Amino acid sequence: MRYRLFGRTGLRVSELLLGCMTLRTEEEARRVVDAYAEAGGNFLDTASAYGESEEVLGAVLGRRERFVVATKYTLSRDADDPNAGGNHRKNLVGSLERSLRRLRTDYVDVLWVHLWDRRTPVEETMRALDDVVRAGKVLYVGVSDAPSWFVARANTLAEWRGWTPFAGVQVPYSLVRRDVERELLPMAEALQLSVAAWAPLGGGMLAGETRVDLASLSAGERAVREEVHRVAAEMGCTAAQVALAWVRQQGVLPLVGMRTPEQVADAVAGLGVVLPPEAVARLEAAAPFERGFPADFIAECEASAFAFGSGVVV
C-alpha cells in the first residue's frame, strides 16, 4: 500500500480508502477493518447519516491512532427538527458531538461537509469548521457533493481570514459517471485538493457482481461494462481491479465499500494493476464524454493564434 498527502497538508492517507457505510455488524466490521489495516490501509470513511455505521466502527477501532477516521455532517438526524440538518453551526456541533460518542473517540481526523446547503452562508460554515479544528475535535476538513464555485469561494475565504481550508473533496466518479471532469476535477487540481471518488465501481455495475441487473442498464452502460471485462480478461485481473485502476490513474483516490476480507484482498491486489495507454483509450472510448462549454471552447481558442497570438507558451 502506498500513501498520498491529503491535499495541501502533511497527512498521509492510503491510496485505497475504505467506505464503511455498508458495514452492518461488529463481526463484519472487525474482519474487514483488520484485513484492510493488515494490507496497510488507514482511511476509514463514515457519516452521521449512515445508520449504525459509526457505532459499529467505533466498537472495532482498537488502535485508534493507527487510523485516519473520517465522518460527515449535514444530513438530518431528526426529520422533525428543522435544525437537525444543514451546514449551520448548530447542526455541526450537535452532529459532531454525537459522532464522537458513537465512534468512541475524542476527535476525528477528517470532518467532511456532506452536502452543499444553499441556505447556510459559506462564512458561517467555514468559521464553525475552524472553531472545531481549534478546539481539537477535528484535525482536517473536506467537502462532499458541492459545486466547484462553492469550494473555491470557501477556500478563498479561509485563506483570507486565516481559517482552516478544505483539504479534499468527495465526488461520485467512475467510467460510467465522468461529469466531475467538467469543473470539479480541474478545480481540485488547481487548488491542490485531494479527490476521493465514491461509487468508483458504478454501484457495482462495472464489477463482476451477479446482483447487477444487466437488463436495466442503458446501452452505454452495457458497453462500458463489457469493455472493462474484456480488458480484465486480457490483463489477467478482475473487472473491479480494472475499474479502480482507471480511477487511480486519473489522480483520484477510490473510496470503496467492502463487506468481506475477500473484497479487500481483491482491491488491494489490484493496486499493482497499471493500465497501458491503449487500454485506457479503449475504456474511455466506450465511455465517451464531452467536457462542454467553457472547457472545450477555451481549448479551441488556446490551440489557435486567435486568442493569445502565435508562438509556443510553456
TrEMBL record:
Single GO cellular component term: cytosol
Transferase among keywords: no
Domain NADP-dependent oxidoreductase: 16-286
Superkingdom in the source lineage: Bacteria
Keyword tags: Oxidoreductase
Pfam families the record matches: Aldo_ket_red
GO molecular function per UniProt: oxidoreductase activity
Naturally occurring in which organism (per UniProt): Lentzea guizhouensis
Signal peptide: none
InterPro entries: AKR, AKR_Detox_Biosynth, NAD(P)_OxRdtase_dom_sf, NADP_OxRdtase_dom
Keyword Metal-binding: no
Protein name: Aldo/keto reductase
